[in-house]
Amino acid sequence: MKKFSSLTALLLIIAAVYWSYEGLMPSYSEDAMGPEHHFSTAKAFEHVEQIAQKPHAVGFEAHTEVRAYIVSELEKLGLETSLQEGYTAGDWGNLSKAVNILARIKGTSDGKALLLLSHYDSSPHSSLGASDAGSGVATILEGLRAFLSENTEPKNDIIVLISDAEELGLNGADLFVKEHPWRKDVGLVLNFEARGSGGPSYMLIETNRGNSKLIKEFTKANPHYPVANSLAYSIYKMLPNDTDLTVFREDGDIEGFNFAFIDDHYDYHTEHDTYERLDKNTLTHQGTYLMPLLKHFSDADLTDLKSLNDSIYFNMPFFKLVSYPFEWIWPMFALAVLLFIVLLVHGFHNKELEINAILKGFLPMVLVLVINGAIGYFSWSILKSIYPHYKDILHGFTYNGHTYIAAFVFLSLGICFYGYRQFRKLKMSNLLVGPIILWLLICALIALYLPGASFFIIPLFALLASFWVVLNQEVPSAYLMVFLGLPAIFIFAPFLKMFPVGLGLKMMVASTAFATLVFLLLLPVFGFIKRKKTLASLCLLIFLGAMIVAHFNSGFSVENAKPTSLLYVYDADTKSAKWATYENSLSTWTAQYLGADKEVPEKLDNSTISSKYSSSFTYVSKAPKKAIPMMTIEKTRDTIIGENRYLEVCITPQRNINRLEVFTNDVHLKKASVNGVELSEYYLKNRRYGKLVTHYISDRPYTDLELILPKEEPLRLTIYEASNDLLQNSQFSIPARPEHDIPMPFVLNDAILVTKAVHFE
Q1: In this model, does residue 522 exceed pLDDT 90?
Q2: Alpha-carbon gap, residue 201 to 331, rounded angstroms
Q3: Closest residue by Cα to residue 451 from 614, 335, 325
Q4: How many Å apart are CA 415 and CA 421, to the nearest integer?
Q5: Helix (H) or strand (E) holding 259
Q6: Ramachandran assignment for 324, one of left (phi > 0), alpha (psi -120 to 50 degrees), beta (any other)
Q7: CA-CA distance, 618 to 585, in Å (whole number)?
Q8: How far apart are CA 701 and CA 652, in angstroms?
Q9: pTM score of the predicted model
Q10: Between these two residues, 92 and 116, which has the higher pLDDT value?
């Protein structure tokens, strides 16, 4: 391959990688004065700004204000609104009062209705909820305005559900699906969500059966920037959370589409989830989904969306969404195997292939896979040992996380270039056999165990085509090789970023592994480049430069603030108090209370107040006892009938609390109700660590427990009563956090926590 051709080929590959990211989503432009029937990101952004003024979790003062704003905006559109109120514990044992906002646009037919869904509560206790899910609410409000401005009557009814208490356990969706009469009318749900504050919005299907009809209708709707693949839902299920749409699928057998963005993950559920940090391109992307889908599904037949058949699907630049039936998986694999065998026979017949050379060609492939896999696997552990404060970012995606991804991808590529340079004397035809066999093995395993990812075979066909060219041309065209490498770039390049962004830097191994696998697919280009050592050195320099940049951005600042936590914990049984924190590296602010006398607590019992990532206190220290009003615990019934004991207990706080959590010892509960809401039999059988219920307090402070258990089993209740008022309580003088600190998300924070155990023999 000529020097000029090699350089051009590299530039074309770089351009293709750039386009594989840049082409995923639209660019924001000032559009507030555009046509009335167009979705205006600027107008949607105004809604986000109003919604995200203050934290507005359930029970917070601003929660009511946000609800009133949304109702007002719906009524401005001429819609009649209603509120659905009720207590529910969902499937997680999280009790709260949800207040759903509902509206309905009447269609011309009596078919199934299209439901537009997002939630308006923010995560407790400090998140401003701009992205999660103010962006979803704003998308629906602006989409409805644009849709209604055309004055066209839809065929199907359009139901608007702005749900409540999603962050507490999908409670609002649970309330609607189980109790609202409109639930039986719903044929399809479009749900808008967020798990970060930027990046492309991924389409994720929720279905109990096959997806083929949903994909067919989605393709007909023709959104301009679909970002979706049949592997994505498998990845979504790996995340430690569900969405409201999950309730519709599991409890109502109602299918739908999620649209959620996950980049800038470090803003998720934090004080930094502000409208200023929400990416306008991302909000524009949500609008490009809603408008064509709203127009299509408001007129489509929503009674005929269920299917027993599945489709493989993936997005590609220029082609948008590509799909084909699952039935093609094994025939396509068999075809790939057959083509490979034919090419092998052809290669040996023409003496282009040699057994010894092929076996030697496996060595660089195995070498780079093992080295890069090990680097990716251990990278996060090594980074945390060098920068212990990274442990305080509980979801595992640091502010400089994108820089680390780039660094380790280039390190992997450098190792690939260097590894294959050592075997440069081998003919390219012999070097390609190993990667083809590896990719055939990968595709076979995927077809068996993860069929949604079977589109991985598409780049393999391109590699087989490259193999055919190499067998027949001593010096193939660099441009042809780049062209045949485009499927690998367009399909896999976004995965280099998606996995560690969505699942945390602990998944860096996915980036290093995919970088290596893509390199192998592009070997027909890279293998002919003479200056592999130069490219390896360049990749290593980029890696070192990125690591230096990451190092200088590894600390915390006003823009990239440190998550901090502080609790005052009073044990009502021992009448002792302590300061506690979830921080691994204490901030100066926290160290005021957990200083030289701090100690690592003994391993806590699993029956302790819950957090998203099962975090435990890292340090505690003695604290002065304060006159915290104690809860009252009243046994209102204790009766034995036959073999069962019927016990009723009322827990009433004597102060304003936000959360009450109750655990039991290892006892078999036959039935349990909390404030009249019965906990499901499934939950009681599968509850973890003895958790009975978490009650998020709004307007009913007491917690009534009604339990049925075997008469011979003793019962112990461990009660955690928490209020998020440590910084405002008059008994304390806690200074405000510095600007470079924020409350740590996913854990109880800024709280006065009272614990008490009660025995019922």
Answers
A1: yes
A2: 32
A3: 325
A4: 10
A5: strand 256-263
A6: beta
A7: 9
A8: 7
A9: 0.94
A10: 116
Pairwise CA distance, residues 705 & 529, whole Å: 72
Residue 241 banded pLDDT, cuts 50, 70, 90: low
Taking phi first (over 0 means left), then psi (-120 to 50 degrees means alpha), and beta for anything else, what does residue 659 get?
Answer: beta
Report the alpha-carbon distance of residue 174 to residue 293 in Å, rounded.
Answer: 25
Amino acid letter for position 120: Y
Q: What is the pLDDT of residue 29?
A: 83
> Alpha-carbon distance 255 to 249, whole Å?
6
**Cis status, amide bond into 125, omega within 30 of 0:** yes
Instruction: Read off the DSSP letter of residue 122.
Output: P
User: What letter represents residue 398's amino acid?
Assistant: T
State both tokens at 450. 């993860």
Determine what percent of the chain is predicted with pLDDT higher than 70.
97
**CB proximity list for 169: less than 8 A, separation 6 or greater:** 89, 90, 91, 92, 93, 94, 96
Q: Please, are residues 34 and 291 in contact by the beta-carbon 8 Å criterion?
A: no
Cβ pair 471, 465 in contact under 8 A: no
β strands within 488-631, DSSP E:
562-564, 567-571, 576-581, 619-622
How confident is the model at residue 614, as a pLDDT? 76
- CA angle at 425 for the pair 421 and 428, rounded to the nearest 5°: 85
599 CB contacts (<8 Å, ≥6 apart)?
Answer: 619, 620, 621
Residue among 555, 607, 608, 556 at smallest CA distance from 580: 608
250: CB partners within 8 A, 6+ apart: 91, 208
How many angstroms separate the Cα of 480 from the Cα of each of 17, 371, 410?
A: 17, 30, 25
CA–chain centroid gap for 601, Å, is 32
Q: What is the pLDDT of residues 551-604, one digit of tens each?
A: 999 999 999 999 999 999 999 999 999 999 999 999 999 999 998 888 988 755
What residues contact 68, with CB distance under 8 A and at least 6 apart? none
pLDDT confidence of residue 501: 94
The pLDDT tens digits for 347-389 are 999 999 999 999 999 999 999 999 999 999 999 999 999 999 9
Q: Which residue do the tokens 């827990």 mark?
A: 651
| Angstrom distances, CA of residue 228 to CA of 156, 202, 289, 345, 435 | 26, 6, 12, 38, 27
Q: Is 360 exposed, middle or buried (0-12, 13-18, 19+ CB in 10 A)?
A: middle
CA 702 → CA 595, 657, 725, 734, distances in Å?
A: 37, 10, 19, 28
Joined tokens for residue 8:
């051009």
How many CB atoms within 10 Å of residue 699?
8
Check residue 33 and give its pLDDT.
61
CB 403 within 8 A of CB 550: yes
Report the pLDDT averaged over residues 648-662: 94
Nearest-Å Rg of the Cα atoms of the chain is: 29
* Per-residue confidence (pLDDT) for residue 91, from 0 to 100: 81
Instruction: Please give the Cα distance from 428 to 357 (Å, whole number).
Output: 10
Burial class (CB in 10 A: 0-12, 13-18, 19+), 209: middle
Task: Show the DSSP H helices in 504-643 as ranges.
Answer: 508-521, 523-526, 532-552, 588-591
Q: Are strands 671-674 and 703-710 parallel, antiparallel or unpaired?
A: antiparallel
- What is the rounded CA–CA span in Å between residue 418 and residue 472? 27
What does the pLDDT look like over 305-341, one tens digit per residue? 999 999 999 999 989 999 999 999 999 999 999 999 9
Q: What CA–CA distance (Å, rounded) separates 190 from 221?
A: 13
CB neighbours of residue 359 within 10 Å: 12
